[in-house]
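User: Um, what's this?
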Amino acid sequence: MDTPPFRAARKRTPAEQGNELGFAARTEAWTRQERVNYNATSAMLTAWKKTEELAYLNEVSSVPLQQTLRHSQTAFTNFFAKWARYPHFKSRRKSRKSAEYTTSGFRFRDGKLALAKMPEPLDIVWSRPFPEGAKPSTVTVSQDAAGRWFVSLLCDDPSVTPLGANGNAVGIDVGLDHLLTLSTGEKVTNARHERKDRVRLAKAQRNLARKTRGSANRNKARLEVARMHARIADRRRDGLHKLTTRLVRENQTLVIEDLTVRIMVKSRTLARAVSDAAWSQFRSMLEYKAAWYGREVIAVDRWFPSSKLCSACGTVQDKVPLHVRTWTCDCGTTHDRDVNAAKNLLAAGRAVAACGAGVRPQRSTPGGQSAMK
């Protein structure tokens, strides 16, 4: 059997190379209007291991190799079902190297983890105590762009149980001057982690640009840039974890705005600031932690005029430009733009939770838009 071609690039792990072999075989079959399933690629893998060129695949456990073929099968199944686009190769510059082991590929005893075909357990510095009584079902070993190695263990944590209902509800308005503004009036400062290291990061990137491609010095400079990006991402993630955990523990219902961040980051003036704020990551953390602890997250329609609506009388202003941070309604109420938006989001979320009513109020002018979800 002919070996599918590789693309010239950085050195790949056996698991990644096995995945590329299977993917290339599937793609070649697809050009002939044929379908290749998991069983066929598994048989191909066995044949490839017997060739002189790919004999090195026998040096590692077969488990991560088989797992990559299963992931590829899932991707093609989604494509054939028209749930996703045609699969593509992982980015060799951006994706992290990884290998996934199922229960037959590792042994976990007395807090020590040993992987298949390894002479001794891994020397691990645990980031947190392993849940007592939990048994890992999957182990993923990965290396990020900064050269750091990670081991992730998938298990059920008995300590994660729904919290008691407290009846509290909060509206959350995200922003750039302040990362969050709550309907209670509290404002959370935007740490701007990327901006703090922007000068050092720019210097490191200029240093990288001067290095000769393929040289050892360029690789050192690349690692320095990657470490700085990792430091920024780690601090941002740590802050969001602490913030979302507090919000979920304190409130039964959390109302947010359904923003299209992928469109907002295309703005030449706001892209960097929006990316640094990590609104999508904040929402993702909020949703899965709410599912863990029995809380409810409600996303209000992105077209709901939360900033232009008076939370006191319900009047919708014609225009409230972004630079206007406070404004006074015709009823005489003076609003802080962000606090007012958070209060309106909370009211809209309660309406949706109570009866499924729309969250856009009737405008005072004739022909205004009616309520909608």
User: Anything to note?
Assistant: Residues 1-10, 358-373 have pLDDT under 50 and may be disordered.
